[in-house]
Amino acid sequence: MVLGQEENTTFENANSAYNAGQFEKAVMLYKEILESGQQSAELYFNLANSYYRLNQVAESIFYFEKAKLLKSKDEDININSAFAQNMAIDAVEVLPKSQMTQWKEKIVDLLSQEGWAYFTVLLAWLLALFWGLYLWNKVPLVKRTFFVSTVVLGLLLMGSLAITFVKASNAADTTFGILFINKIEVWAEPNKRAEVLFLLHEGTKVQMLDELQEWQKIRIANGSEGWIKDGKVRSLKGFK
Predict the structure, then answer these.
(1) Which of 115, 134, 141, 172 could cross-link to 146 by cystine, CB 3.0-4.6 Å?
(2) What is the pLDDT of residues 8-46, one digit of tens each?
(3) For the whole model, what pTM was predicted?
(4) Could you tell me the strand order of the sheet in which 205-212 lies?
(5) Do 115 and 80 share a structural domain?
């Protein structure tokens, strides 16, 4: 994590407070860094651990999820996040995915959105270079090699562009949040004449699908959907 001198001092003081068992002070100092506009997986991770020590379920889960957005494959983050999830009342099983879906997600998740964008630019430059070498070269065998390489790079470029577009669309259209309310009813429709489908509790991760006045349509990890009224859902988008 790259911080300015003042933020770095605050971060070290927060770590010292955490190690001394002063978790409320650690939270205050970590959040002071967030207020300055800084973010990192390490900062969110330490803040989540502090809230975990204070038994603040929703806050702990929220900041572990923020950390995972920046470092989804970090083992420490995922292990501690699982401990925090065990504190939540709702044990929501993740909806099973087909092997094809898992395979596609693995490819898409090989790089971040920014990584795929850089990779696309690199392929475009290589494509232009190999096409120029193909046109310039007069030796049949070498010319054929550059032609085949150009075709392969063109296919890779189209695939990379598609993945970059999918990553950008998913980031723009998909909003997840953490529920910050002790208990709330989930209704089949956005009115209280409808059927209550199930209950949710503090710390549950939901996907935010739609809004209608004071109602919000949400989906949980097992695929169940419904409407909540005046639900306190904190979006995972943004710095804080």
Answers:
(1) 134
(2) 889 999 999 999 999 999 999 999 999 988 889 999 999
(3) 0.76
(4) 196-201, 183-187, 225-229, 215-219, 205-212, 175-179, 233-235
(5) no
